[in-house]
Amino acid sequence: MKVGVLGAGQLARMIALAGIPLGLEFIFLDPSADACANRLGEPLIGDYNDPILLAQLAERADVVTYEFENVPAEVAEFLASHTQVHPSPKALAVAQDRLVEKTFFHDIGIPTPDYAAVDSLEDLAQAMTDIGYPAVLKSRTQGYDGKGQSVLKSANDLKPAWELLQGVPAVVEAFVPFNREVSIIAVRSVSGEIVFYPLSENLHRGGILRVSKCSTDDAMQQQAESYVSRLLEALDYVGVLALELFEINGQLLVNEFAPRVHNSGHWTIEGAETSQFENHLRAILDLPLGSTRAVGKSAMVNFIGGLPETEELLAIPHAHLHLYDKAPRKGRKVAHATVRAENAEQLSVLIQKLTALADQVDDS
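Request: output the structure for the sequence above.
Response:
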């Protein structure tokens, strides 16, 4: 069985690492010849819109998936007319446009922060009379890891923020004074089987995820499962989906969803019975889904921009290092480490040790 993947970055790499023990083969389409997943399968090097490469991918792959949501939706639609594509092109199209996404949430009864569409500086000024300050201005498309976003604290911020977006369509959202940020990783198979992982409690800095901690027996678990179940069913979704949420005094508001395996689920590699990557493959191949039960207390720490010495990382008890085979670069995710402990106190100490090393090399 051969799985095609649009994109050959670290997420594709981890999908392949989970699939090789299952006897799966992989074919990757990516513009970069040195993309880090290429050595784990057959690389197709070129643009995502290349008709020759797309034809080759459709012919050789039994099923196609993708590792990030900025793949052109028309590419997924073309492939879906020739082979199986999971998640569906519809899910990709909804996730690619923040306005479409938020409207979709609203239509299926999932609460979000207040928002408004803006296509001009005048639109933005008018919207702020209802949204209020502070707020966040975001491009509708092509935004990730905090890119294409500006915080608006007063009317003086409107013009610089709009100019930073260079006139692209945008949305403005009310700033949420959240107690914490969480996400839920859910999986739905071709046959409709659904499983949920325990909530991840997330810490961002500069718009980039720094730490995710598995939160078992979380009071918000049931509410998060209710929201993500609604989304999975509405999209007739197949694969892993991550739903990012804000908690405000016992109520969850949805920020966005990612139609793919997700950074906040990396702890599942060592911290769950079945990782998100293996379950994604099981889902798109319609195999029985694996248990999502947490194993001990676990967390993940990202390394951004650079790497500490491997010896220093592996000297931390219960640490598991995952290198992405990517050259260090400012703001780039180059690796992560997971830790697993017997109790919350021990886990907290291990997270502190890892984050101290991460901060030494972080140039973001």
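The two ends are 40 Å apart (CA to CA).
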